[in-house]
Specification:
globular; single chain; Rossmann fold; Neuraminidase; about 15% helix; 40 strands; alpha+beta; nine-stranded mixed β-sheet; five-stranded antiparallel β-sheet
Length: about 650
């Protein structure tokens, strides 16, 4: 069996993204990306698939980035965004034949697009600032940057100043546009009311660290802010009659949302749930639009959520708070689009056996089937890892974990083990095809990952247990899971590695500063010195106060006691550090400090820096950078841990 390679994962593995179903349920439009070696970025095209037959039809062919396909309310026209002209523009494509027509062009990116209910206008989201001048000559010296805001930068967007996402209303016939929003905050994911008179928009506040729902009048831009100012709002939808909005939000800022309902007539907000056991699909930080819920009638709402690392479809009664599981998957889904009758739901889907395809669910019959088959040929040539799920009880909590095996696993051999720690700390791992996990497992490693306390998708109480305890019980949870696996005869305790990114990088740095048990480590974008990160990260001045118990001057002893920088001088584990130079979340200085500390301590260390790479570069960065990082990850563990060796025994 041929193992997966970094090149095949980056340049050959494909995924159908941003699926949208037509109002009549006949078609699904989606985006298909392609990356090639040597290119600074990939290209993407828009496709249609017929839901009844699975017949595919390619709609766009330009060597550009086409995105955000959106059906008009009558289903006859597809709006989409493309940079084929050099600048991002909205195009309208008649689906019964004809060429795409450019409607409106902008100098700044277009990050969201939605039709009004009558099909006469569209709302788009694009950056704007009062003093913005995107036409500045390329050879002009950069302007001086002066700010009085705390949210003056953001990862994957860079320096912002007053540049924020705003909503623009565009006439679907003439292309005439006007800016609707005025607050100097980000306005994201507008959704029209059924009568077309207003849009519900996510608005950042509290210096960009919290978010609130705002109802903005389409005629004059007047705002009505919904719910409490603190916390975050994730997903929302107008009721069928336009009289209410259901939304998921979290006023405690625990990253475990509950369900709320806003009444348009009274302006009152009512809390429906107090500890929702599932996590509605609105990630932190969001990489794509959240999966918006769908009203089924006057009181039942359908939504996609994650529970214990797996996707499912749920229905909540907004009058009683009763939650019903409609469908559960052994996998993770993204996007959530329903037809006008809410019978058909389509999502992008990934599991251990299959990844990147569109899954269509029939809510009337319960049937589900795939509409695409994008990677079966590749995965026949390079089969994915085998897997096992298990639970370890520790300190009164069940810690869920997964172990990936090479596809040709032989229990008579002994294998090196790599522990992969997720980010967050309120992120999660689950039932999904993960590229770097599959890379390691198909190349002869046992890959272990878990959801220690602090992970989301297990309810609020479980999520809160990591607050002010980084490197404490969360670390012990992970070590307990690792110890459980190392009791098996085919797992080699002498050849154990650890790797993680972001908070996972923190835990990797922490682990090698606390123990010599690991023979190799790969540390991605670590949180290394928490006090310096507090003032240099785009979010630590708020997020860190919640996670770490306050600012450094208030709890300096805690910062010192829980920073890997305090203890890293005693680390002996050979370590590779991977870091993007444009990372604003865990800034490059964190990796630089770790590198110098390990180097001065005499530890074997290597530092891979990726220019113009944000915190998210392993997922959305330059293809060559992603390929290089995957290769270095694999080769570092191959060099220091080796591969399968004789010596295992058949497990009982």
């Amino acid at each position: 069996m041929a193992p997966l390679t970094p090149e095949r994962l980056v340049f050959e593995l494909r995924a159908a993204g941003d699926p949208v179903i037509s109002p009549d349920g006949r078609w699904v439009a989606f985006v298909l990306g392609e990356a090639r070696p040597g290119q600074r970025r990939g290209t993407s095209t828009i496709w249609l698939v017929e839901t009844a037959t699975g017949e595919l039809r390619q709609l766009t062919r330009a060597a550009a980035r086409d995105s955000l396909p959106r059906f008009s309310p009558d289903g006859h026209t597809l709006a989409f965004v493309s940079d084929r002209s050099g600048d991002p523009a909205v195009y309208l494509l008649p689906l019964d034949g004809g060429e795409a027509r450019e409607l409106v062009r902008r100098k700044r990116p277009i990050v969201d697009l939605t039709w009004s209910p009558d099909g006469r206008t569209l709302a788009l989201v694009s950056p704007w600032a009062p003093d913005d001048d995107p036409s500045r000559p390329a050879d002009a010296p950069p302007p001086v940057r002066v700010t009085r805001r705390i949210d003056y930068k953001q990862d994957n967007r860079g320096y912002l100043g007053d540049l924020r996402h705003h909503v623009f209303i565009v006439d679907a016939e003439s292309g005439e546009e006007r800016r609707l929003t005025s607050l100097l905050q980000d306005h994201n994911f507008p959704r029209w009311s059924p009568d077309g008179q207003a849009l519900a928009v996510q608005v950042t506040n509290r210096n960009g660290m919290c978010s609130q729902l705002a109802v903005v009048e389409a005629e004059d831009g007047a705002y009505t802010l919904v719910g409490p100012e603190l916390g975050n709002v994730g997903t929302w939808a107008w009721s069928l009659d336009g009289g209410r909005i259901v939304y998921t939000g979290d006023i405690e800022q625990t990253w475990q949302a509950d369900v709320w309902v806003w009444d348009r007539a009274t302006g009152q907000v009512r809390r429906v749930t107090h500890d929702l056991p599932v996590l509605p699909d609105a990630g932190f930080p969001t990489v794509q639009a959240p999966s918006m819920p769908v009203w089924l009638d006057g009181r039942r709402v359908l939504f996609h959520a994650i529970r214990a690392g797996a996707s499912g479809h749920y229905v909540i009664d907004v009058e009683t708070g009763e939650l019903t599981t409609e469908r559960s998957f052994q996998g993770l889904a993204a996007g959530f689009s329903a037809d006008a009758s809410a019978r058909w739901v389509v999502q992008s889907f990934t599991s251990f056996e299959r990844t990147g395809d569109l899954l269509l669910c029939d809510r009337q019959t319960g049937e589900q089937r795939f509409l695409t088959d994008l990677n079966s040929a590749l995965l026949r040539e390079t089969p994915p890892a085998r897997w096992e799920r298990f639970v370890v009880e520790r300190a009164g909590l069940p810690i869920e974990a997964w172990l990936l095996f090479p596809p040709d696993f032989d229990p008579s051999l002994r294998y090196p083990v790599v522990l992969d720690v997720h980010g967050g700390p309120n992120g999660y791992y689950g039932w999904a095809f993960n590229p770097w996990q599959q890379l390691l497992a198909t190349n002869g490693f046992l890959v272990l990952y878990a959801n220690p306390r602090g992970s989301s998708t297990y309810g609020r109480e479980f999520t809160l247990k990591v607050l002010r305890d980084w490197g404490g019980e969360d670390y012990l949870d992970l070590m307990a899971v690792l110890d459980h696996v190392l009791q098996r005869p085919y797992a080699d305790p002498a050849r154990t590695g650890i790797w993680g990114y972001s908070y996972g990088g923190y835990m990797t740095a922490w682990a090698i500063s606390q123990s010599d048990r690991f023979a190799a480590a790969v540390c991605g974008a670590p949180c290394f010195d928490l006090e310096s990160m507090y003032g240099t990260s785009d979010i630590a001045h708020h997020f860190g106060e919640i996670q770490w118990g306050g600012p450094p001057w208030a709890v300096r002893d805690w910062y010192e006691a829980r920073s890997p920088s305090t203890f890293a001088h005693r680390a002996k584990t050979p370590t590779l550090i991977i870091h993007g130079e444009a990372d604003e979340r865990c800034p490059i200085g964190q990796g630089e400090q770790m590198y110098i500390t390990l180097l001065k301590a005499g530890c074997e260390v290597e530092f891979a820096r990726y220019p113009d790479a944000s915190h998210l570069f392993l997922r959305v960065g330059y293809p060559d950078h992603r390929c290089d990082a995957y290769r270095r990850l694999l080769e570092w563990f191959q060099r220091h841990l080796g591969g399968p060796e004789p010596g295992g025994t058949q497990p009982k």
